[in-house]
Design a protein that fits this description.
The chain has 9 helices and 8 strands. With 216 residues, the protein is α/β, with parallel strands linked by helices. It has a domain of 148 residues: Rossmann fold (3-Layer(aba) Sandwich), CATH 3.40.50. The strands form 2 sheets. It has a 5-stranded parallel β-sheet. Strands 6-5-7 form a 3-stranded antiparallel β-sheet. A hairpin with a 5-residue loop joins strand 5 and strand 6. It starts with a strand and ends in a 5-residue tail after the last helix. Bound molecules: adenosine monophosphate. The site of adenosine monophosphate (AMP) has 18 residues, from helix 2 and helix 3.
Length: 216
């Protein structure tokens, strides 16, 4: 099973490209942000605990995140028909990365690539200002560059933490806590220039998946 980590600031297109890998190559898209937002909307104890942290643009504790990932990995490790898993937004700290390396190893799995979605703060802010999410399936759109289909329009919502102030804060948290992962995983690093078009980045993923020697 192929394992990819998607790392990059808000608005860098991780969700959009993960969706592409899911639709075209049968990858599982595992977004810790989506899982946490589901907990919040279910009103569970965990959801109540993390709601204010997410709203503030801070990181949820490593313990909580690692227990979510452990549970998901146990479910997913036997999915023989999936080509791989895209971890979108995880790991986000060196502690999470170290624990993840151990988890993968114990399951006989290893990381293929850390895909680093490189985007400046200014570009992140302008993308987030137009971001829209289909509340039925979490698909991500942008009102100018990647508009939602007409039938999805009544279901489009914005995220609580998608405003200028919060995005600036999340960018700062990303630089301090998450960007050191680029060094941690430098042997598996693939940098993507996020100013390329969505289609050009799809092509890069086509090439990457071909290099995994999997049938598509
Ligand atoms: P995202 O959808 O990836 O932008 O995540 C939204 C929010 O969920 C983040 O700003 C964090 O508050 C929380 N979150 C998601 N993934 C993680 C993680 N791996 N570690 C800590 N917090 C996370």
């Amino acid at each position: 099973m192929n394992i990819l980590i998607f790392l990059g600031p808000a608005g860098s297109g991780k969700g959009t490209q993960a969706q592409y890998l899911k639709e075209h190559f049968d990858f599982v898209h595992l977004s810790t942000g989506d899982l946490l937002r589901q907990e919040v909307s279910s009103g569970s104890k965990l959801g109540q605990e993390v709601q204010s942290v997410i709203r503030a643009g801070n990181l949820v504790s490593d313990d909580i995140i690692l227990s979510i990932i452990k549970e998901q990995l146990l479910i997913l490790k036997d999915r023989k028909n999936s080509k791989g898993i895209v971890f979108d937004g995880f790991p986000r700290t060196i502690e999470q990365a170290k624990a993840f390396d151990i988890m993968l190893n114990s399951l006989g799995l290893s990381l293929n690539k850390l895909v680093y979605f490189d985007l400046s703060l200014d570009a992140s802010l302008s993308r987030i200002s137009g971001r829209q999410i289909d509340s039925r399936n979490n698909l991500v759109y942008h009102k100018d560059t990647n508009p939602a289909p007409k039938e999805a329009e009544p279901f489009l919502v914005s995220r609580d933490d998608d405003n200028v102030e919060k995005v600036k804060h999340r960018f700062q948290v990303y630089q301090t806590e998450t960007s050191p992962l680029i060094t941690h995983y430098h042997d598996q690093l693939l940098r993507i220039d996020c100013m390329k078009s969505i289609k050009d980045i799809h092509s890069l993923f086509d090439e990457l998946v071909q290099s995994f020697h999997i049938s598509v």
